[in-house]
Every structure is written in structure tokens, then in C-alpha cells.
Amino acid sequence: MAVPASRILDLLKLRASIFQTTFNPTGARLGNKILRQRLRGPALAAYYPRRTATFSDLRKLYPGFETYDEFEEDRLEGVMITKSRGKGAPKKKRTAAESKKFQGKKRR
Q1: What residue spans carry the region label Disordered (predicted)?
Q2: Is 22 exposed, middle or buried (0-12, 13-18, 19+ CB in 10 A)?
Q3: How many helices (H) and strands (E) does the chain have?
Q4: Which of these, 21, 45, 25, lies nearest to 35 by C-alpha position?
Q5: Residues 6+ apart with CB under 8 A from 24
Q6: Reported pTM
Q7: 63 lies in which domain range?
Q8: Would residue 30 count as lying in a domain?
Q9: H/E element holding 80?
Q10: Residues 13-69: pLDDT tens digits?
């Protein structure tokens, strides 16, 4: 004895309401599995240490106060050494004409 499809759908609706699940007779992908999971944001935020103050933060807070950042000074010294040897980064082009000057013809 076959049961009509409408009766099975009514049974599925009733089951979804009793067990508080989603009624989805077409089987469409709704993402309910993901939405039911716990949020990961607070756990990830608690994993990483809090951000500490840096020299740039201090400079922004106290612009008149003179600070000395040893790491930044070492970095700038290294940049000056490489530039003096001709190994530094090229200068940025300021206008569109300067940037088009060295492009040349496009090859096909």
C-alpha cells in the first residue's frame, strides 16, 4: 500500500516543527549546518595576543616628543647603503607622461 506524497510532506513538516529543524523538501543547499555551528570569532580573537604600543603610535600621540627607533634607523641605514651601491628601488613616476615614457611598443 503506497502512501501519498502529500501525506509524507505533511509528516516531514510536522517532524521539522517538533525537532526544530529546517523543512527543506527540495534538498536545496541552505547552509544550515554552518549556521548552527558556534561562532569562531571570539575564540580566534582570544588566541592572538593584544596589540601593544609601537613607536609610530607614540609619535602619533605625542608629536612634539622626540623618539628614537633603533630598528627604523637600522632599516633606513641599510636602504641608504643599497642606494649608494645602485641597488635600491627605482624612483616612483609622478606623472602619466613619465610612466609612459619607458613602456615602448606592445608586441603581438
Answers
A1: 82-108
A2: exposed
A3: 6, 0
A4: 21
A5: 30, 32
A6: 0.38
A7: 53-86
A8: no
A9: helix 70-84
A10: 999 999 998 899 998 999 988 888 999 998 888 898 888 888 788 888 888 888 788
